[in-house]
Each structure stands twice: as structure tokens, then as C-alpha cells.
Amino acid sequence: MAKDATLCPGADIRGVLDSSFTRVPADAPGKVPTGCGFWRNAWPENPAWKSVAVGLGHDTAYWTEFLCALAEADPDMAVNIEHEDAAYSRTEGLAPAAENPHTAAAGL
Question: Which pTM was predicted?
Fold first, then answer.
């Protein structure tokens, strides 16, 4: 699975294991379900990290190495994208998230 994240300035305060998220009540307006009766947590104002489209947190060299390691384990392994970048809509973030691993695969 391809999923990416980036560090934010809040890492200076909270460290990379930021756990200052707050729970969103089940009856909150605009809540986002994550499945199995759970709801997304709210991000802190200045998070230590955030999810970004694949390739926006790590460069092409990182993803080339990632894909190379997967190919060594199983050359026929599929790579699924997990898109959680809140800066993009549900579908709009898939283009860069697919383009970046595709570019990395060309470097194999």
C-alpha cells in the first residue's frame, strides 16, 4: 500500500508521535465515518504531521526504492494507493498520488 505523510512545524513541539487529536462526537454535524461505527478524529491546530498525496511527503528516489523492495519480495505485487490528503477532494488527489509512483516505477 502506498501512503505518504509529511512533518509539520508542530513536530518541534509534540514530536513525531503526535497524539493530540480530539475525538469527533458521533452526533457532530459533518462528521466523516471511517467504518465500523467510528468517526474521524479532529486534527490539532498545529499538527506534528499530516497525510499527503503519495509523492508529496517523500521524493521520487524514496518511492523508487520502495517499489524496488516490493518487486524483490513479489514482482507481481499490486500497489494500492491510500488517499488521505485533506487538501484534495476524494478524487482530485488520486492523480498526483498515482503519477508519483508511476514516475518512480520508470526508474526501476
Answer: 0.74
